[in-house]
Amino acid sequence: MANTPGSKKAVRKIARRTEVNTARRSRVRTFLRKFDEALSAGDAGAAKDAFVKAQSELMRAVSKGVVHKNTGSRKVSRLAAALRKMSTASAA
After folding, report:
1. What residues contact residue 10 under an 8 Å CB cut-off, 6+ apart?
2. Residue 86 in contact with residue 47, Cβ under 8 Å?
3. 32 and 75 Cβ atoms separated by less than 8 Å
4. Angle CA(49)–CA(53)–CA(59) in degrees, nearest 5?
5. CA 2/CA 17 separation, integer angstroms
6. What is the pLDDT of residues 7-22, one digit of tens each?
7. How far apart are CA 11 and CA 78, in angstroms?
8. CA dist., res. 80 & res. 65, Å (int)
9. Using alpha carbons only, how large is the chain's radius of gyration in Å?
10. How many angstroms separate the CA atoms of 2 and 87, rounded?
11. 3-state secondary structure 72-88
12. Cα–Cα distance between 88 and 58 in angstroms, integer?
């Protein structure tokens, strides 16, 4: 248990930061889900729009330290590959 004033303040700061980070992580997951839904629906236009938004949100989470840089890059790369695969399948 925190005893000193400094450690009590640190506990309060951590609680606030955890709440913010949880909200950010949830927001990223929402945009990823919207991309997956557009992809599974086969709507190329909606999928491209959702990809741009998901990529933006992921990179924002990276810049805020919620997600590691490599993790964000890997996820964006996989999203782009899925979008590319869908667009080539629909073009063929």
Report:
1. 2
2. yes
3. yes
4. 145
5. 17
6. 999 999 999 999 999 9
7. 37
8. 22
9. 18
10. 55
11. HHHHHHHHHHHHHHHHH
12. 25
User: In this structure, which amino acid lies at residue 15?
Assistant: A
Residue type, 30: T
Contact 49, 35 (CB under 8 A): no
Residues 32 and 56 sit within 8 Å (Cβ to Cβ) = no
pLDDT at 2 over 90: no
Q: Is 37 helix (H, G, I), strand (E, B) or coil?
A: helix
Q: Please say whether the beta carbons of 55 and 13 come within 8 A.
A: no
Q: Which residue has the higher pLDDT, 88 or 34?
A: 34
Which of 37, 22, 10 has the alpha carbon at shortest distance from 67? 22
Tokens of 34: 């919207």
- What token pair was written down for 28? 């990223």
